[in-house]
Amino acid sequence: MSRSIFEVATFSFATPGTEAGYDLSRDEDVLKRLEASVARTGVPISGFCLGASFLKGEGRQAQIDMVKRHVELCVRFGAKFLRHDVVTWALRLTDASEFEREFSFIADGCREVAEFGAQHGVVTSVEDHGFFMNGAERLLRLHHAVGHPNFKLTVDVGNFLCVDDNPYVATRRTLPHASFVHVKDFYTRRAEPGPGWLKTAGGEYIRGSVFGYGDLDTKALLEERGGFGL
Fold first, then answer.
1. 88-155-106-86 Cα dihedral, nearest 10 degrees
2. Cβ(122)–Cβ(75) below 8 Å
3. Which candidate, 141, 147, 148, places its Cα nearest to that of 116?
4. pLDDT given for residue 130 in this prediction
5. In sequence order, what DSSP letters do the residues of 143-202 get, joined into one string?
6. Looking at the whole model, is its pTM more than 0.85?
7. Could you tell me the pLDDT band of residue 226, with boundaries at 50, 70 and 90?
């Protein structure tokens, strides 16, 4: 018999317009409400996910420390997984060298969090999210550079399209290092059909769809389920 669990996206508790700076670990009122909901429903939390930025700068260590507090939040709720970003979702490269300048700071931050997570029994991961830390090659490079067994990848089969990476190949390449897999579908177009479409890194356009109704071959993606551990 299957068992219901859920992942908490921390920004969903923020008031509109404050999502980027919201820190659930410091919002005790919401945490108590969340604990009461878990107790009432009996549905456990599998993990938490949050935005963060490990780019070089004055606030970098504060961001790492915030992610560590969410590791402790996982412990409080008995959750075993933490997914965190390493740059803001919308950040796009201004030139090819920008990624190289920031990569070591990102990898070092992920390693610090992974080591902290290992001490508390919480697996940490980074998703193919947005436009900067996305694409199979970058994710695999990050996984190798972090070099810690507690650091994994959250593989979103559709998000690879944001950087024009082949979702079937990219999924297959990254699955061996995944702690979680997200299934997603998109409509894809070469030219912009109208408002509400997201422009990819390569200048094409995508828009989220109900899974199985978009342009991705979802059957082919799900045939990788042996790697999903499902």
1. 20
2. yes
3. 148
4. 94
5. HHHH--TTEEEEEETTGGGGGT--HHHHHHHHGGGEEEEE--EEEEESS--STTPEEPTT
6. yes
7. low
Greater pLDDT, 230 or 61: 61
Average pLDDT over residues 43-52: 95
Q: Pairing between strand 205-209 and 151-156? A: unpaired
> What pLDDT is attached to residue 20?
79
Contacts (Cβ under 8 Å, ≥6 apart) of 213: 185
Q: Looking at residue 183, what is its pLDDT?
A: 94
In Å, how far are 28, 65, 72, 210, 215 from 188, measured between CA atoms? 42, 38, 40, 13, 6
Beta strands, E only, 3-44 = 6-9
- Number of residues in the chain: 230
Q: Which two tokens mark 60?
A: 């970098």
Structure tokens at 204: 């094409």
Q: Bridge partners of 205?
A: 189, 199
